[in-house]
């Protein structure tokens, strides 16, 4: 196997959702001669995956897809990854097959995969640290993992050649591989991903309770609330499984958080201005210093803010100018922070260069104020 040479072979992907679908697209882009076979329990997802060209073939059951595979990737919710591993353990797989997963937790999965390693197969836990609140193969895209960290949890006895081979298969993700211990993985992702998801959901619950008596709350929930709760729109099945898998870490983080909230409540009760100022300043400083230009704890979206008059058609006006200049955008939305005056249009781009070109383009065609927010 030579570095940089496209691989041929059979890749079997179990779970054709956002992540499985995106991995399929990345592998196909880098290794066009590879055959991608997909399996999903939801036949609508498999049909859609085939229709969108995300997979070359659909397997009706795990056995047929796994039999001749050179690479098997499991991208179902994490508790189902355990079930899939159990099933694979009972099958006779190809000599030299590499098995990996994309689950958001690692300790339980790696433990379960011992049966594969006992049978002489290579299993390496994996976790591409990028994603979205969207689910399903319809949201899959080949650029999802670009510049993100791709965490791998090989064992001390993992064959280094097999590990290299896995990285070559995944080269099209354009992610940065990082090896971590499963327990370290679950603690870190608990802090920067899993616990924040619980908090986001709890904030939505709080607003929902208020909305029962005060209907205005949903209309007023604009910028800040939307930013901090976006991830509460993620798949409930996925987060139920992640929470159960990372229960111990989450329970510890709940305790830490409750202690911290008690401290903040005390500062407030005592009207301790200095302590409150310090609390917010230290958070701002640490957050501002985080590496926003790489995908990681904070995903890199290159947002451009455009101060536009709030009239119907303004979005198509702006997208028209961008299309004229062949500038790709990834998202566009109105941020409703002000009543009956101008609106802020937020346009997201994949790269800083696209954002710069867009800013020049909008300045050229209009007299709307623009800002990158940095
Ligand atoms: N969404 C993210 O941001 C993100 C990022 C990195 C890793 N992950 C992890 O990747 C995995 C997949 O997440 P996703 O966002 O693609 O979810 P998704 O809901 O988009 O896709 C999961 C797919 O798995 C299928 N599935 C469920 N049970 C199955 C079974 N028994 N057999 C076969 N298929 C089954 C579902 O039908 C669905 O199509 C999860 O383990 C998640 O923790 C998610
Ligand atoms: O951007 C989002 O919507 C995500 O929730 C992505 C996110 C995260 O928490 O960072 C979610 C779970 C994955 O395991 C990795 C990435």
UniProtKB/TrEMBL annotation:
Residues 303-374 form the ACT domain. Pfam families: ACT, PDH_C, PDH_N. It comes from the Bacteria. NCBIfam families: PRK06545.1-5. Pathway: Amino-acid biosynthesis; L-tyrosine biosynthesis; (4-hydroxyphenyl)pyruvate from prephenate (NAD(+) route): step 1/1. It catalyses: prephenate + NAD(+) = 3-(4-hydroxyphenyl)pyruvate + CO2 + NADH. Keywords: Amino-acid biosynthesis, Aromatic amino acid biosynthesis, NAD, Oxidoreductase, Tyrosine biosynthesis. One of its GO terms (molecular function) is prephenate dehydrogenase (NAD+) activity. InterPro entries: 6-PGluconate_DH-like_C_sf, ACT-like_dom_sf, ACT_dom, NAD(P)-bd_dom_sf, PDH_C, PDH_N, Preph/Arog_dehydrog, Prephen_DH. The keyword Phosphoprotein does not apply. Belongs to the prephenate/arogenate dehydrogenase family. This is Prephenate dehydrogenase. Residues 9-298 form the Prephenate/arogenate dehydrogenase domain. The keyword Cell inner membrane does not apply. GO terms for biological process: tyrosine biosynthetic process. SUPFAM superfamilies: 6-phosphogluconate dehydrogenase C-terminal domain-like (SSF48179), ACT-like (SSF55021), NAD(P)-binding Rossmann-fold domains (SSF51735). Its EC number is 1.3.1.12.
